[in-house]
Amino acid sequence: MDKPGPQLVHLADFKPPSAARAWVSIPNPNGLPLIATATSEKTVRVYSLSNFTLHSTLEGGHSRSIRSVAWKPSTQDNGELCIATGSFDSTMGLWRRKEEGGALRAGGSGEPLELEVTRNGIKHDEEGSDDGEDWEFAIVLEGHDSEVKHVAYSPSGQWLASCSRDKSIWIWEEIGEEGDDEFETVAVLQEHTADVKCVSWRAASSYKDEGEVLASASYDDTIRLWREEEEGEWGCFAVMEGHDGTVWSLEWEPLVSVKRFDLEDGRPPRLLSSSADGTIRLWSLAPAAPSPNKPSYFNSGIPSTMRPAPAAEKWICTAVLPKVHDLPVYSISWSARTGQVVSTGGDGRVAIYEERKREPAETEAEPKPEETAESAKPSATTEWVVVTILDGAHGPYEVNHVTWCPRYDAGKKSADEELIITTGDDGLVKAWTVEGNPIES
Amino acid sequence: MSGREMDNANPTILSISELPSRRRKDKDGVDGPEDFGIQAIMMAKPSYAMDPFYLSDYSDTDSDDSSLEPIDEQEVYDLIAPISDPEHPLSLASLGVVKLQDVHLTSPSDLTNPAALTRVLVELTPTVTHCSLATVIGLGVRVRLEQALPPSYRVEVRIKEGTHSSAAEVNKQLGDKERVAAALENANLMGILKKMMKPCME
């Protein structure tokens, strides 16, 4: 307690910034030191994580804001980058770029190689030929009736999910050879009663032998889980109600946390959600039998034939993280390395949380806050604590997105050090280190 | 929008003298926001100046030295009072949609912190409880304030309780940043908003 607590320290701003609102920044999942930022300038800016400068730009494919961006998980070592975009113009785009001289490595184990790839990319910039032409706008995916809010590749790369203000979720599959640019609509899921804000995939085999599972969050305040029930037939198998406002983002529990807290051997990963109600909730599969869905606020007026079938799994809220935000919580990220959670939102705050095992004696002595009372029981063996809070991460501006991200720059202190990357209404993307993090010691 | 029947063909209109204003007392009443005369049209600024996105600072609304003092309710009211109703050529203030007593400001306790946020809540009173344009009016008020106030101001626009049949839906929509952002990229809606904002620029 006497030592200074852990704190977020500003490391760098990515340069040059967007002149208008930046929505989200997604690190490359294949071990490349690149991060892609979707902006309301109708572009995606790809920045280098080695030196925090612009690597390349995707432009010309959309007529309105690009709201979301997803890297395709690399399935083969073909030296190609692939990005999917979702726009307010109601279309999605697929973009490709040949990365000269550098082969991509699935899994990203060869570190020197990755750095070499980046150097090539940077050299490319310096030659002045990087004007965005090297990203090819390969294909436009049409189908949604209005703004596309989020796009996400499944971890295997097999599926691409998109969701929209039109209340639907589409699941797309690339057919044919890589680069043929042929997509098939595998499913159109329409059980949400309002805008679907976010979709998030759970990896296959993270629970029993289940395939990839999709979670969705909506303006109707609910969260739904979807899976392929039969060949080509996707269905909703769980509905989570509890938030008192739009659910903005979702994160599945990483393996490191499942292992640490797998107390009732063989539970599925838990799901974390953040909402306009200012809370972050943790959801777990209940051991009990499923109960019929309660009609939600938005269900009034929906014909009964369109109501969801009884859920096959019951998921319940097992914890509410300590409340530090008093405006919508737009984004959360769950570190795959440490299991720590970071959140941000309209109040411009960035907060880090950690789940800890509770001492058995404490369980009785310390009553949970009121709002967790109904559902506190299953999580009584752990508690969530705030590690650190930073106010005004982007000055007076709202922060739209936060993510943990591997560190690649020269100042890196350990092989697997992570940064926090925030994206704001000021168009800035900022990198932060966590100094004095207790989990490191 | 044209050709449809008005929601409220005969609204109650307040006269200018009934509207709260500080400036009228300070100056000589030359800046009446209800000036819709030919002169105002002739003197209108070019259209880019009416683009809410273009107006990224707030110097145009208050050229006096008020930037040294904290912004108060009256100033917030003055920013939105002249906004024109999309249905009538009348200001939101004269229709009683915007009222000074329904503008609420919550300032941060620590004024030295540049990141400290000020909360602005504006409650609107639609002219009729089924007004289909409540969302557009609310959007206009939110956009006007977000463009005119410093970025540390968080604006919330709500329908006053009990004055609209679908207030909860309208409130949720007006509070959704993503929906508001998307609406501002809709050319038709922007056309309506620009018309509504026109009196603010004069």
TrEMBL record, chain A:
A Pfam family hit: WD40
- Asked if the record carries the keyword tRNA-binding, the reply is no
The entry assigns this protein to a family as follows: Belongs to the WD repeat CIA1 family.
Gene transcribed to yield this protein: CIA1
The WD repeats extend over 141-173, 189-226, 271-285
List all Basic and acidic residues biased stretches.
Answer: 355-371
Query: Per its database record, what is this protein's job?
Result: Essential component of the cytosolic iron-sulfur (Fe/S) protein assembly machinery. Required for the maturation of extramitochondrial Fe/S proteins.
Q: Which CDD domains match?
A: WD40
Q: Where is this region: Disordered?
A: 355-380
Q: What is this protein called?
A: Probable cytosolic iron-sulfur protein assembly protein 1
Cellular component annotations (GO), alphabetically ordered: cytosolic [4Fe-4S] assembly targeting complex
Any one GO biological process: iron-sulfur cluster assembly
Q: Which UniProt keywords apply?
A: Repeat, WD repeat
Extract the SUPFAM superfamilies matched here: WD40 repeat-like
Automatic annotation (TrEMBL), chain B:
Could you provide one GO biological process annotation from this protein's UniProt record?
A: chromosome segregation
Q: Which residues form the MIP18 family-like domain?
A: 73-157
In the UniProt record, does the keyword Metal-binding occur?
A: no
Query: Which keywords appear in this protein's UniProt record, sorted alphabetically?
Result: Chromosome partition
List the InterPro entries hit by this protein, alphabetically.
FSCA_dom_sf, MIP18, MIP18-like
Gene3D superfamilies (UniProt xref):
6.10.250.1280, Fe-S cluster assembly (FSCA)
Renumbered residue ranges of the record's region Disordered: 1-36
Pfam families, per this entry? FeS_assembly_P
- The family this protein is said to belong to: Belongs to the MIP18 family.
Tell me the PANTHER family matching this sequence.
Answer: CYTOSOLIC IRON-SULFUR ASSEMBLY COMPONENT 2B, CYTOSOLIC IRON-SULFUR ASSEMBLY COMPONENT 2B-RELATED
Tell me what this protein is called. FAM96B-like protein
